[in-house]
From TrEMBL:
Domain of life: Bacteria
Keywords: ATP-binding, DNA damage, Nucleotide-binding, SOS response
Gene3D superfamilies: P-loop containing nucleotide triphosphate hydrolases (3.40.50.300)
Residue segments, region Disordered: 182-213
Molecular-function GO terms, alphabetical: ATP binding
Name by which UniProt lists this protein: ATP-binding protein
Domain ATPase AAA-type core: 19-50, 278-397
InterPro entries on file: ATPase_AAA_core, P-loop_NTPase
A Pfam cross-reference name: AAA_21
Amino acid sequence: MEVDGFKNLLGLDIELGAFTCIAGPNGTGKSNVFDAINFLSLLSDMPMMDAAQQVRGVHGERVGDPRDLFWNGYEANDRRMRFAAEMIVPLTVEDDFGRVARPTISFLRYELEIGYQAAVGLERIGRLRLLKEALRHINIGDAPSRIRFPHSAARFRSNVLRGRRSGVAFISTSEEHGEPVISIHQDGGSRGKPRPSAASRAPGTVVSTVTGSDDPTILAARREMQSWRRLALEPSALRTSDRFVDPRFMESDGRHLPGALYRIATSESGGDPRRIYSRVANRLAELTGVSVRGVEVVADDVRELLTVYLEERSGLRLPARSLSEGTLRFLALCVLLEDPGAVGLFCMEEPENGIHPANLPSMVRLVEELAVDTSDAPGGDNPFRQVVINTHSPFVVQLINPDHLLFASVGSRPAPDGTIARGLVLHPLVDTWRAGGEVATYTKADILPYLVAPPGAQLKLDLDAA
């Protein structure tokens, strides 16, 4: 992913593996990476102004000014932000009318440039302008140099990269009379005329308008971006029972957890829901201080409610509303792990929050296992999931494979106006697969704060004095 001019992301070029952990102090801009991913996902599904007002919003609440998204947004005259994402899209998708569509090729590069137009007349707030949009194929022969994270070429790469493409892009941008014109090109390549439209007054991206199977590759890119989610599990949502008529997929805040677990247990268990419940309970039992004999979803036919219950070893049955916040978040991730339908990119802020230090190894192991195993083919037992977390916890850093780590700092970066500004820099560790790029690598000496106790730390208790 490449981002320039979005908040403090200036010339950022980040390679994400199946699992990535971004570690760094507060205030460096780690969360802005998640905001950029979330913004692209929202842009694939709604008008640009709606997407801008929902970035890091609360429960869909519209907040903020679109200038908040630009670097130096209130001072610059020419505000622009640029994005590029190279992605592997699903081999089969469904359009808004239930028809199956298959992309021409599954390895794509999406580019987007957005500007700002100041308020005029009676307007009190300016609007976002679509300046450039492009969707191109990446030759599968170039995959070894473009997909650098460790993976099996025979079992992983050959199963997710399919198809071929020659000729023009699926979406391209040209200029007429000084204004951008964006064209959609058919999947057949040169056959058929492109469909141009003026971008200057477009309320949303071209990708967001494709709903049918006539443009299957653009639709596949849209479905992929729609699957990029920022998990912000809220205790109040996790404690809520589901009505029988509620959706059976867990939302980003954890709502509909009972319905999701009920669906998985009844549809993925081979006729025995206890198998799924047992697996979830066994993972929960790893937590220190949690006495678990079993987990199940109870259907109340009178009130038409689904409720998650945990049974302790003592025989006491507790509804989800009685569980601690940390236990609820861990339970939600256990359910996500069991869900073959939960695919795409998942971003999680500081998953260690609310977790007892003794349970951090179990939490880290769980979030790592959520990601697809790139040594094997994706499928029902190996869902095609990508996971990105951020943290400032030394304990989490010490538990994670060095290949998965990126360290955040604030450094000098070229700004869109040609000046030098302070922006987020992400450093890989030396001798890992990301090393060798333009950004300086970190050594153990650079990450000592994550490896040793701070000066004056009390590492043991003087019980005799007590």
